[in-house]
Amino acid sequence: MAATDAPAFARSPLLDGPHGFFGRRGGVSAGVAAGLNVGLGAGDDAGAVAENRRRAAAAVLPGGRLVSVYQVHSARCVTVADPWDESARPEADALVTDRPGLVLGIVTADCAPILFRDRSRGVIGAAHAGWKGALGGVTAATLDAMEALGARRADIAAVIGPTIAQASYEVDAAFRDRFAAADPASSRHFSGGRDGHFQFDLPGYLVRRLHAEGCGTAESLGLDTYADADAFYSYRRATHRGEPTYGRQFSLIGLG
Q1: What is the C-alpha separation between 75 and 81, in angstroms, rounded?
Q2: Which of 75, 89, 238, 250 could form a disulfide with 136 if both were Cys (CB 3.0 to 4.6 A apart)?
């Protein structure tokens, strides 16, 4: 890959190994999804999406084999022993592995991408946490699956990449009440908004939940997908603007 083909991405020192949180910069897609769109659901050219995926994976782990899942807003996590064909992706919202040469990929457009690593034991994970997956326990499922591969929960680092921030995420009272019914402590992640509405802190909720579930370290990069249209795709922003579709961004982690 030529240097000019390398897309921009963010990293965290907590993960200390091949990984990257990508936005929309550095790709070949055109139109509404212009940039590094990696989602076929955007109505984008399939060849452009494939090239964008190739560029992202090569930037994280040159020569690595990309593996992703068909995301359905669940709490299901799958363990990758051997990479599957992308046309036969299992339905899940998280995946883990201990196999060198693999790159795990999660697609998002406001939901939270979470990358995990136990550096000392060579186990990695990636999860897609929208509000349904977050409430349903996708983080716990990922930690459990990593432990089954030999990871130690207290040594796992988890980092939340670009996601919709509290200032941009308005929800109604029924939404807040759903979280409060499951866990009264979650009320701290809702601040007051206009009448009958609240602002939800999805990354804050996830960080607290990860710590409660025994994850060793957890942080959010604090990147708001909704607020920065030049850098990120956003489902909610596209909806508010009446745009016909929206792109998706990639979060990847690999084992060298």
Answers
A1: 20
A2: 75
